[in-house]
Inverse folding.
């Protein structure tokens, strides 16, 4: 049953993603009168978390990170599997289609675009967003449309804290390549 649901959600993802970014092209949408009714079904993570993934998830939570996605988004679900079941308990996940996806369904309003609270966070999923330390309210950094490994998410957290990555330093000094923000160096 789960494989059948994944297959139908994957084909639906193309139509919804195209519609979320603008009108659905005729070649993608096929019949504009087609009835689409996909009830919201939360994705259930099967994989166990590594110790590293759990620690990163705790750091993401402490940093105020959010993960935006959609229940039908294959890459969003892959991102959850990479972190694992235990780590995802710490992640602030924002579901952008909490009411499902509906088009031309009798008795239902069409829902083919992300929920309003996801406005500005729909360019590409999965989308990680972290508030910048010391930044203006609403100032954030993130990574969109990429399945991130725990080490990549740890780097994102460090960059949100103002640490700068120096690839030359990383390759030549044996250090982790990060420089602390100027105000921390003086302490």
């Amino acid at each position: 049953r789960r494989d059948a649901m994944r297959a139908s959600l994957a084909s639906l993802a193309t139509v919804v993603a195209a519609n979320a970014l603008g009108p659905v092209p005729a070649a993608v949408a096929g019949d504009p009168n087609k009835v689409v009714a996909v009830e919201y079904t939360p994705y259930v993570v099967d994989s166990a978390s590594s110790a590293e993934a759990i620690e990163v998830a705790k750091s993401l939570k402490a940093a105020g990170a959010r993960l935006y996605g959609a229940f039908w988004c294959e890459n969003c679900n892959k991102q959850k599997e990479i972190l694992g079941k235990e780590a995802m308990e710490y992640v602030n996940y924002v579901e952008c289609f909490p009411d499902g996806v509906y088009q031309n369904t009798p008795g239902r309003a069409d829902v083919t675009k992300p929920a309003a609270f996801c406005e500005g966070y729909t360019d590409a999923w999965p989308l990680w967003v972290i508030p910048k330390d010391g930044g203006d309210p609403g100032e954030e950094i993130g990574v969109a449309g990429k399945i991130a490994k725990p080490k990549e998410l740890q780097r994102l957290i460090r960059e949100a804290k103002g640490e700068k990555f120096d690839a030359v330093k990383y390759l030549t000094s044996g250090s982790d390549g990060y420089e602390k923000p100027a105000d921390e160096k003086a302490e």
